[in-house]
């Protein structure tokens, strides 16, 4: 019996909330209590997270090839088991070598479980009709920080950071593993009679093969700069807000509201953006990130200014996630989609591997004010790259 598309999207959506919340967002809340107990600096704590990003960049292409060969079901099920192992290791850390090993494991898990793997699974099932499922799936992922920042904060307050990491590990193992196992097998999704892929003729990619490399390069630059800002703030927004004078509870609340607006931004794209030129959509998403810094320039460290930043930042990264998944599908087509995502993602993962550690150093040396200025300049570079992409590759009207 065929598995319904709605079940697939909901199952992947739940696993994206859990995977992003545990692998990526939890460290932002748990870094300070870990550093206090272990006697390590914040810079060293986030060096581990940087290691995971670097490992993710190094294994991105092999992981994509594995997914194209074995399918999303096998890949993501394996990834959830690997992620649970890495998170469990973090709960037992007493030495630097174990800490580094845990993040190496999580770097591999990230390539097997996060958006690129989930998007490629949807393309495996739906072909070029996957743009809308990708948008729907992104709605779920936007709630990861909203769910897991408070969970980690309150579990840490009640039981300590080690128990918080155990909760994260059990979330992945108990919930993600069976949901990934419930996905259709690759042999089922490759059957055109299963009703998931559809029988229509795929539209031609917008970017011709002769100009593919330059388009991928510009998109990779835009997403790498955007990822640097996002990863730095995923890791340090809460500590930075506390350094600016807010209480820990206020910082968690301001940071968590971002997830709601990530989801609202993606919902708006679902309703209004399906026929939007992909180049214009990429410019819009990166442009909003530039505008997000305006409230900080006008209101400084006030709670309303920080809240406005968090809202605009959430909308931007919500839309950029769809850019990352849907725009390459429209520009380059479904064939080799996972490998294209890996090619685009690899420079960003390698560059952003330094983001948590570098931004921790910035906060320690020149403070959060200048730190936001640096991120603003990087956000401008991301917008410039998407503008160059739009200028060089003018899309035809009536896009699918």
From TrEMBL:
UniProt-annotated location(s): Membrane
Parts of the chain that traverse the membrane: 7-27, 39-60, 72-90, 96-114, 134-151, 163-183, 213-231, 237-255, 276-294, 306-327, 339-363, 369-391
Major subcellular location class: membrane
Topology of this chain in the membrane: Multi-pass membrane protein
Family matches, as InterPro entries: MFS, MFS_Riboflavin_Transporter, MFS_trans_sf
Gene Ontology cellular component annotations, sorted alphabetically: membrane
Keywords, in A-Z order: Membrane, Transmembrane, Transmembrane helix, Transport
Lineage top rank: taxon: Bacteria
A molecular function GO annotation: transmembrane transporter activity
UniProt protein name: MFS transporter
């Amino acid at each position: 019996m065929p598995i319904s598309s709605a079940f697939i999207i909901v199952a992947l959506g739940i696993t994206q909330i859990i995977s992003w919340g545990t692998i990526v967002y939890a460290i932002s809340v748990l870094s300070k209590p870990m550093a206090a107990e272990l006697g390590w600096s914040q810079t060293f704590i986030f060096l581990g997270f940087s290691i995971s990003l670097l490992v993710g960049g190094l294994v991105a292409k092999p992981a994509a090839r594995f997914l194209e060969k074995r399918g999303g079901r096998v890949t993501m099920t394996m990834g959830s088991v690997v992620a649970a192992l890495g998170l469990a290791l973090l709960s037992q850390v007493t030495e630097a070598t174990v800490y580094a090993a845990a993040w190496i494991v999580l770097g591999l898990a990230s390539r097997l479980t996060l958006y690129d793997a989930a998007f490629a699974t949807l393309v495996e099932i739906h072909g070029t009709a996957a743009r809308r499922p990708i948008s729907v799936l992104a709605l779920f992922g936007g709630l990861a920080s909203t769910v897991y920042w408070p969970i980690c904060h309150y579990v840490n307050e009640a039981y300590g950071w080690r128990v918080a990491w155990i909760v994260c590990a059990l979330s992945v193992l108990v919930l993600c593993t069976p949901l990934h196992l419930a996905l259709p097998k690759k042999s089922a999704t490759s059957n055109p009679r299963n009703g998931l892929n559809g029988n229509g003729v795929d539209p031609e990619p917008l970017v011709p093969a002769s100009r593919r490399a330059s388009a991928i390069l510009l998109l990779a630059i835009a997403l790498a700069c955007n990822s640097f800002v996002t990863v730095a703030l995923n890791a340090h927004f809460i500590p930075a807000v506390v350094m600016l004078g807010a209480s820990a509870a206020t910082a968690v609340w301001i940071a968590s509201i971002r997830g709601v607006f990530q989801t609202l931004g993606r919902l708006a794209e679902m309703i209004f953006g399906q026929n939007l030129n992909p180049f214009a959509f990429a410019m819009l998403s990166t442009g909003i990130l530039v505008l997000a810094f305006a409230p900080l320039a006008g209101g400084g460290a006030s709670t309303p200014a920080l809240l406005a930043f968090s809202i605009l930042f959430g909308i931007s990264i919500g839309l950029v996630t769809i850019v990352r998944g849907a725009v390459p599908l429209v520009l380059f087509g479904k064939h080799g989609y996972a490998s294209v995502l890996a090619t685009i993602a690899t420079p960003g993962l390698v560059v952003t591997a330094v983001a948590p550690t570098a931004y921790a150093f910035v906060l320690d040396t020149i403070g959060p004010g200048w730190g936001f200025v640096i991120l603003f300049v990087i956000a401008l570079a991301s917008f410039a790259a998407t503008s160059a992409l739009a200028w060089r590759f003018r899309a035809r009207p009536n896009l699918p």
